[in-house]
Structure prediction request, 575 residues.
Amino acid sequence: MFSRWLTILAWLAALMLTPANAWPQTTLPHGSHIAGELLVSPRGGVSDGDVETAYKAHGGRKIRTLSQIKVHHIQVPVNALDAVEAALRRNPKIAFVEKNFVAQANLVPNDPNFANQWHLQKVSAPAAWDLTTGSSSVKVAVIDSGVDPSHPDLMNKLVPGYNFLGGSTSDTHDVYGHGTAVAGVIGADTNSGIGVAGLGWNTSIMPLVVVSSSNIATYADIASAINYAADHGARVINMSLGGTTYSSTLQSAVDYAWSKGVVVVAAAGNNSSSAGFYPAALNNVVAVSATESNDTLSSFSNYGSWIAVSAPGNYIYTTVNGGGYGNWQGTSFASPQVAALAALLFAKNPSLSNQQVVDLIKNNADDLGAAGFDTSFGWGRINAYRAVQAVQSTPSLSVSITSPANNSSVSGMVNVTTSVSSQAGVARVDLYVDGSLYASDTSSPFTFSWNSTGMTGSHSLMAKAFDVNGYSASSSPISVTVGQMDSTPPDVQVTGVLYDGKNISITASASDSESAVIKVEFYVDGKLKATDTSKPWSVKINAKPIGGGSHSVQARAYDAAGNVGSSGSVTVTTR
Prediction:
């Protein structure tokens, strides 16, 4: 029976109210810039004269040059600002162009207990709020025990949700206390002059009740809540709950939400274990581990190859069921910070895809632990400012691993191929094996030869692409199983040769019991004439350069392990 249940792992620390001073703040509109001004930088090797010619052609006039960093501060017609910016961005001589944005001291909300929320400073929330304070149109579904509907810091932030426990489906009040605390981390009514601040600031909360008053939730209810959130306009889902049993039902629900553009975030769990914790360890879920104030892994936090990022998880001061405030700890309170950051990114650019949002969060995290990905912190502890800042000029960039297939078996030398697209142009693709950098490729088609000799069992592969402007995107990781070295060559036979007076048409059969056949080469008189990379292994060769007479035809097949098999010879006569 326990396999059908999900136990929430969250610890309630001693509740504490600590008064703090309000912080009055005069703010400028977020994203403000000086009308009619741009900052332009040439690519390497392009002279100042050439870049001046480029912007003068669009009515631009130089105000000054920041010579140390090769940036031209220019003025353009106010009404043509966006058009000139777009035109210069397409100019191959220009490295970057951007508006002359306005800065001010970091935006600090006037919530009196903001000073007690150390986690907001740690993830650079005030700097991120200078760029966006979120949007009420972005909904984060909190799949939990409900939310206190009368809490003064949450009552104005809630949108209709659903209760999956039976009874009144519209009654989403908190039956256990956990969900209210999670919701406050995401979207407490910020800059309201009361209580605490939520990282998502203006973000809306959709309460979905699956956790009972005895701290139990079923997989069926959780899957139903995921489906509901995806169907009712949630851009982000937070699940600060988990269990140790894998579920195909939960994976199907997550995949459904992902297909509808939803970012799904879940707590890694508090077992101090690397064992999979679900839904966090499912595909298409951002799994979040917890960190201390000194950026070490929290002693209770789970870890493993399935962790995506980390966030503060100790003594997180937030809302409490019944109208109060207190300190909570656990990965349950790290996860909602990542969900709130995803909401800020969607608010900054509503056209972002869920994959782009996840990439922005991972690629702009503060790297902790071992360089790059590691099993404690994933890609690092989130940095809200860097992630939001990256949205302002993020071009389209994506990468995926096309071979080998996910969950396939491989051995020996493995050909790893990627598919990369970029508006700006691809500069480099890195291949990571089990979270560690294995190799880099700087030229298309961005393929790698991974030597899996000596390795056994399951291993993960992930590709990370960089465009010419330095932006990056990561592929979804794939899992492959490495077996014993395949030393058996493919079986290949020439099955047909036809000369029509002009061309020689050749067909072959090729198979391999251990590794996939990746190509077949066709030889005439010992010379390579054509290659085919997919079934049915057939080619047509122009016979004229070969000349008349009797000729020997042979095929060679190559498998994914690097073995080569050769066919017998077949004779064809041409004239």
